[in-house]
């Protein structure tokens, strides 16, 4: 019974001593001796570190063994793997334990607490310690020392000053990765299904933009069947803008997950990259729109002519059927038949002209070919622009991974990118559209002008008296 009381008392005293010296998490702290010290205290020494698993933003505790008289520790700073981490908040916690030898105080044990965060002073050190991560956890040696001075000696038993540093929180990394991949997948899906990464539709697709009226189909056998509209090619400017947007977003997420810092990450160069690509995309869209406007005007005029001809064909066919069931006016019936033949020929020529205009607009081939090609095929100025953007993107990714900061592009590199974008836009403005590829397309364009004159002189044009009957010609 007495032995049990002694054990309970000893355990209680041990817990009180641990609490007085500032107990760490998940690790047994050193104890203040109750008797004489077995040795004389020499230099200041780091004898313990806690918790056993540390990370950015979590308090890290360090036990120091100090000689008597006690040195001044007002400039105390944290060391990790021998590298000083300046600018961290530090405070003493727990009680100061006196170490005695022969009844005299020969030293002390004190506990200090640091808050590992990234700031302007410690950014370079954390980049060295945490940059180029290859695992979620890393074992590091924790120490302490004075600012602008050497690191204190550490306990010969290294296990007491080593901690497992959590480089990346697995759960946070998994969650952010899922969100990032979903956003990227959404962009890829939209890029395939929509025009978010493509040029705008240049002209209404030839003979595919409207369903053919059944009555007009019976009267105009030359009208082709409606087909799915062809996809426009991928836009180099839009793809480059999307690439830099996701690279910078991914770098921001990576730096935040590892360092816990969400402020001061963006640099002037990163903002310039977004600005240059954004302005280039806006200018490219405007140039493409202007170039497509002429084709669109031609296409709209031809479609209006085709609708006018279809309307005239429907009216003439109805008059011909009424004449067949009415009086035997052979002369009027012959005139209506001739009108049907002339209108059908006109319709064929307008359809050929519409096809010719549509074929002048560039169509999608494949992703890479679209990026380096303009209306006339692969172009060196587009390949050069793509090459420099990819080169800087590789430098950006590697630099962010190694230093946990957006890399610094000097003025020369930013000027190089600006010149590349300006050259791309300048040649895009001056480059001609896609010319007719064969004689049929050239003839169809001439036929379009002929049909337009014919409609004006013979039937009053698209806005003229299109409802006139064949006998009122």
What is the quaternary state of this protein? single chain
Number of strands: 12
**Structural class based on helices, strands and sheet pairing:** alpha+beta
Number of helices: 11
Mean pLDDT: 78
Largest sheet at a glance? 5 strands, mixed
Order of helices and strands: HEEEEEEEHEEEHHHHHHEEHHH
Instruction: Identify the overall geometry.
Output: rod-shaped
Helix amount, in percent? Answer: 40-55%
Distance between the termini: 130 Å
Low-confidence stretches: 6-28, 205-212, 439-444, 457-473
Strand order of the largest sheet: 6-7-3-1-9
Task: Calculate Rg over CA atoms.
Answer: 40 Å
Protein traits:
single chain, 473 residues, alpha+beta, 5-stranded mixed beta sheet
Describe the structure.
- The chain has eleven helices and twelve strands.
- It is of the alpha+beta class and 473 residues long.
- It has a five-stranded mixed β-sheet with strand order 6-7-3-1-9, with no helix packed on it. Strands 2-10-8-4-5 form a five-stranded mixed β-sheet. Strands 11-12 form a two-stranded antiparallel sheet.
- Strand 6 (90-101) and strand 7 form a beta hairpin.
- The protein is rod-shaped, with a radius of gyration of 40 Å.
- Mean pLDDT is 78; it is low at 6-28, 205-212, 439-444 and 457-473.
